[in-house]
Amino acid sequence: MWEEEKRDDGVKWQQLEHHGPYFAPPYERLPDHVHFYYNGKPMKLSLATEEIATFYAKMLDHEYTTKDIFQNNFFNDWIKEMTPEERKKIRELGKCNFEEIHTYFAEKHEAQKALPKEEKQKLKEEAEKIQEKYGYCIIDGHREKIGNFKTEPPGLFRGRGNHPKMGMLKKRVMPEDVIINCSKDSAIPQPPPGHKWKEVRCDNTVTWLASWTENIQGALKYVMLNPSSKLKGEKDWQKYEVARCLKGVVSKIRSQYRADWKSKDMKIRQRSVALYFIDKLALRAGNEKEEGETADTVGCCSLRVEHISLHPHLDGKENVVEFDFLGKDSIRYYNKVPVEKQVFKNLQLFMKKKNPGDDLFDWLSTSSLNKHLQDLMDGLTAKVFRTYNASITLQEQLEALTNEDDSVPAKLLSYNRANRAVAILCNHQRATPKTFEKSMQNLQAKIDAKKDQLAEAKAELKRVKADHKAKKDVKSKTAVEKKKKMVEKIEEQLAKLNMHATDKEENKQIALGTSKLNYLDPRISVAWCKKFGVPIEKIYNKTQREKFAWAIAMADEDFEF
DNA sequence: TGGCTGACTTGACAGGATCTTC
DNA sequence: GAAGATCCTGTCAAGTCAGCCA
């Protein structure tokens, strides 16, 4: 299935057949006993107004609803959907009371959870039926799983960070909004009764099955295949092959950008410093963004003067650059990095006579950078450096950390540490889990108990040894052997618990999943598992094994990235 | 060259499913 | 078998980058 040949990029498929997206269920009216109150008085709302009110009510215990921008955006959009009478009456969000609606949904949710087993099973079966019909497509004779076959339900927009559009109304997607993509000779999906599609087309140069434009940002949304599909797998493989190509030319590229640090051309000089950051720190490219339309986040090319501070000396190191900015998803990037003298001098030059809000690399854009990279290597773009550096780091760390004689849990700790090094490089963070402190305490209690158990077992061993010394018979000898084994077993368990605790503590605020799924060539992990006798299931769960089926089939223990 | 659009990947997180513990 | 912890999966926002057009 994964023969070593690449698909022609222009043509993606010959046959594509599916049932179209599955639409979010229609809104159901609130029961009569659940009220919305305005200015302390119950008020019956029209269908549309009520539906939007429920979106807000459901989010009442979320931090979003405490934010002014969210409240204002919500209220503005809500008013637009009201009847003229409602609009006349409802003037202030502060006078709206959604509590009863909120409680109603909370109780409904609890009731759903408390449903008897049989009821739950019934619901599960219904969901499976839907999945069976809408969740798969036929592409070039293969039945493949679809990634997201449901349209996004209406609700309030949840932008990340300080998003200026948070709280706006995300409208219901209707069949009339949806473009269907399928092959000409296939059975065209049926729109829901009484509706029609916006368009049905056959474009085999793209991989999506259906698309629509969302109303908040005017962006396109797509129904696409699941990562386990052959099409996605091939693309994934290609991505890592490009990154492996970079391995062959990276030292040449590095020499060149170092030379360019002294270029007389400002464009080249800025480009060379930016590329150095992208390579060394695995920064994202940093496309320009429309001001006021999204949260204020940056990447390398869009860094502003205010995002870095220069320290000739800091913590005993020279030429330190302190980065502090919000990156993708408004995740903070904070790092103090010693750099080469020439880079430091260049940064001083780039910052000269600029205001904090000015672009650091004012002569550089992501497209000019990528054009340059394309000239250096076919298929090379800024993000390839991230993939390359992530994968090579994993490989190097695994090499350095794995001890052949270690137990499987110890090897897994090494693997996680290697994975963690990558996640730190790529700045993949997560919020500390809510239950972290408590579960850490529980784990510590277990460790303490195990220690006691070990001490007891050791004392016991000492006793039977003395007994054997005195008696010197077979029975007492067997007892000694038995106790010895017991002590070993407990020691092993204790070591395992300790490793688990270390792993957990080190992982407190770091997300491993993103790098594992998107940046680490899975063949490195497969090879490592084969080489060190670690079952692949310990590294990849079922879904991940499906996504990386190509790598599992392809890589042997000698694979080198 | 730069703005815009479309296609696709990357990313954090919520909540459901499953496992573990008592 | 209930409760709690952990894992897994889906969701959907937010990036990257190529190609088109003026």
From TrEMBL:
Entry superkingdom: Eukaryota
Any one GO cellular component localisation term in the record: chromosome
Keyword presence, Ion transport: no
Catalytically driven reaction(s): ATP-independent breakage of single-stranded DNA, followed by passage and rejoining
Boundaries of every DNA topoisomerase I eukaryotic-type domain copy: 156-533
GO biological process, one term: DNA replication
Coiled coil location: 106-133, 440-507
Annotated keywords: Coiled coil, DNA-binding, Isomerase, Topoisomerase
EC number: 5.6.2.1
Top class in the EC scheme: isomerase
Protein family (similarity comment): Belongs to the type IB topoisomerase family.
Protein function: Releases the supercoiling and torsional tension of DNA introduced during the DNA replication and transcription by transiently cleaving and rejoining one strand of the DNA duplex. Introduces a single-strand break via transesterification at the specific target site 5'-[CT]CCTTp site in duplex DNA. The scissile phosphodiester is attacked by the catalytic tyrosine of the enzyme, resulting in the formation of a DNA-(3'-phosphotyrosyl)-enzyme intermediate and the expulsion of a 5'-OH DNA strand. The free DNA strand then undergoes passage around the unbroken strand thus removing DNA supercoils.
Protein name: DNA topoisomerase I
